[in-house]
Amino acid sequence: MSSLSVAAVMNDGPVIPVIVIEELAQAVPMARALIAGGVRVLEVTLRTPVALQAIRLIADEVPEAIIGAGTLANVADLEAALKAGARFGVSPGSTVSLLRAARSAGLPLLPGVMTPGELMSALDEGYGALKFFPAVPAGGIAMLKALHGPFAQVRFCPTGGISPATAKDFLALPNVACIGGSWLTPAAAVKSGDWATVTRLASEAVALRP
Ligand SMILES: O=C(O)C(=O)C[C@H](O)[C@H](O)COP(=O)(O)O
């Protein structure tokens, strides 16, 4: 049972890094590089074969990290993430089974939604803090402004297609608590072990909200 709340995950910093780990050896240095830049909340996506082991390794070896699992597509993913030591979860979309399983497991979950109907289903299940995915293809800033009308109580973490250049405009919206993005851990820098670049990108991301 985690004592962490979704609000705490969303409020820790302006940007949640969406991380893809191809090789297990990258996990700990990458986590340390992000933390050195001031980013503690780390979302490791379950997109690669080593993702669960990477979560376990970071949970064990980088205690300053608030480690979570992304790309939770179903209840089995959620259970595997919990077992690996994830302290929160993020999903690209929402199913009632996933939302209920996260609630009963006590895992803070940031569920993805894209439409008003999906948002209403998530609200029905008691979730008012949501990932808006894929943010830019689904209407970006204009869509978030439109959703603010009927659903002013919902707090979003838009993710998908956001860049350092557009991040500030998203963060300025009243219904945006934080944003997600993969640009903090560029594949080339990670592959070559250029952790200084990751640290610099992390500190620039933290500085997006003074
Ligand atoms: O894997 C998941 O769980 C996802 O939901 C997808 C990611 O959140 C986006 O792919 C990140 O978007 P970019 O910052 O545009 O790369």
Automatic annotation (TrEMBL):
Pathway: Carbohydrate acid metabolism; 2-dehydro-3-deoxy-D-gluconate degradation; D-glyceraldehyde 3-phosphate and pyruvate from 2-dehydro-3-deoxy-D-gluconate: step 2/2
Catalytic activity entry: 2-dehydro-3-deoxy-6-phospho-D-gluconate = D-glyceraldehyde 3-phosphate + pyruvate
GO molecular function annotation: 2-dehydro-3-deoxy-phosphogluconate aldolase activity
Pfam families: Aldolase
EC number in record: 4.1.2.14
Keyword vocabulary terms for this entry: Carbohydrate metabolism, Lyase, Schiff base
CDD domains in the record: KDPG_aldolase
Subunit and interaction comment: Homotrimer.
NCBIfam families, alphabetized: eda, PRK05718.1
UniProt family annotation: Belongs to the KHG/KDPG aldolase family.
Protein name from the UniProt record: 2-dehydro-3-deoxy-phosphogluconate aldolase
Species whose genome carries this gene: Solimonas aquatica
